[in-house]
Amino acid sequence: MIQIKEVISSQDVKDFVGLQFKIYKDDKMWVPPIIKEERKTYSDETNPALKIYDSKFWTAWKDGKCVGRIGAIINEDYNEKISKKMGRFTRMEFIDDKEVSRELFAVAENWLREKGMEFAHGPLGFTNLDHQGLLIKGFDHLPSIASVYHKDYYHGHISELGYKKENDWVEFRLTLNETVVNKGVRGSRLIKRRYGFEVLKFEKKSELLEYGGRIFKILNDAFQELPYVSPINDELAKKYIDEYFEIINPRYVRIILKNEKIVAFVITMPSLSKAMQKAKGKLFPLGITHIMKALKKPEVIDLLLTGVVHEYHNSGAAVILFAEIQEEMMKQGIDQMETTGIFETNHNVIANWKNYEHIQHKRRRCFVKEL
Questions:
Q1: Model pTM greater than 0.90?
Q2: Are 111 and 89 in contact (CB under 8 A)?
Q3: Which end of the chain has fewer CB within 10 Å, C or N?
């Protein structure tokens, strides 16, 4: 018999977070989060999203053991934007037992119905900067810390529960070479002259932090029409700035200005996937050493965020951003870039990635079901 338990106490949070480490214990492709930071997600004191969006979390128990978890979120800002009553399921993990997954989804769906929701979709987070989508292809490739990884049986469980495809993201691994980089640099020079763009480079985190709030305003503008996106307020932006900017190497960030106003930005960073695996969920005593080494001597660069204000979408600003980052990578002897998830319908960006020596190695999916 399956027992469902709502996450309320600190011990409940420990069980919820700790389940991942049991399910993926022997999985060589899983990148574990830092346990201490992960627990902060479920505290009102450290995660303002819990005050902004209605949510609940549950664990599933069988024979005295935690065997599954799930959360449900209602993002009213997004629902207002699309004029639909959508609830989100999130952070589900479960053993390969269909009774467990059925009971978990039942409790999340029932709560969403009680709240007046007409559809459930996911996996989605509080905002589009949380992990999104279920991995359905690419289980033999190490994910970036900005991507997702799941057990391959999850897809079958969710499909049997009546969920259908809503959207897919695809991810690429790009290999740079001098020809591609030089072509980008030439195009970048022409666009800079045409529009009078100024490119900002950074050596210190303190220099970059000055632009943190302004970057999120651009992010809200650039992403407003995309699925699952709602505006990120100042309090939530500060949380993300504190999380991301703490580990960013400013060398791999670029901002474009036009008349002293930000019109575009790109945030990339050295891949921390292997370092996080070595850390095994803990910064101390050795985890922080592995992470710092990866930041200083990267082998792969992960693309995290790119944003261009609507007014300059067709200006070629993105060409400048990527030319700048790629030139920096070549200087540092790095030729591998892991892209973030891009909607499969974004044909322009996908066509650009295919100009490189590349593999399209991962696919993740957002599912939807009428309640």
A1: yes
A2: no
A3: N
